Amino acid sequence: MSWCMVEFKAGRAEIYYSAVPVEKDDWVIVEADRGRDLGKVVAKDLPTDQVNLLLRQQQQQIHSTAQQQQSQPQQGDDPSQQQQQQHQQQHQQPPKQPTPKRICRLATTAEITLLVTKRQDEQKALLICQTKSKQKKLMMDIVDAEYQWDRRKLTFFFVAERRVDFRELVRDLFKIYKTRIWMCSVNTVHKKPPML
């Protein structure tokens, strides 16, 4: 078994373990959130201590961004709700270290060529989400969209100065795409883990 770093769209990279032989720059099918995804191996044979460090850094980054977003007042929040949220944050358990997923296999040539279609569909989804966000007057900037390879999940990356209630937007997008919709702050996703 070897540890690898696999990169996806917009430089998002994650740690995976592999029982199948892979080389740097190979396209691979990996375990993903309730399905499969396609990415490119950017580093292989990572030492275990480096993997543990990268996983801790990734978790700290996710946790600090989540705390930052929760501490920002949301439009319409009253002071008593803000105090209750602060109390809940203080008594939350720190999140567990993420468990790395596995590289399932090498991607086929046909799967790799479908990336062009996937990117075109992501661009269309981005434009639709941006339009709907503006129609709803949401104070957020939708900057990217990414389908999971198996199309079971569609992630929209956004920037916002304060918390935004985008539940209605997510419901509208689900009606269009009939897949799981995920809204993700770019603060946690687009930062590439540092290579030691």
From TrEMBL:
Residues 58-101 are annotated as: Disordered. Transmembrane segments: none annotated. One of its GO terms (cellular component) is cytoplasm. PROSITE patterns: PSP1_C (PS51411). Pfam families: PSP1. InterPro entries: PSP1-like, PSP1_C. It comes from the Eukaryota. Residues 101-186 form the PSP1 C-terminal domain. Residues 58-94 have a biased composition (Low complexity). This is PSP1 C-terminal conserved region-domain-containing protein. It comes from Syncephalastrum racemosum.
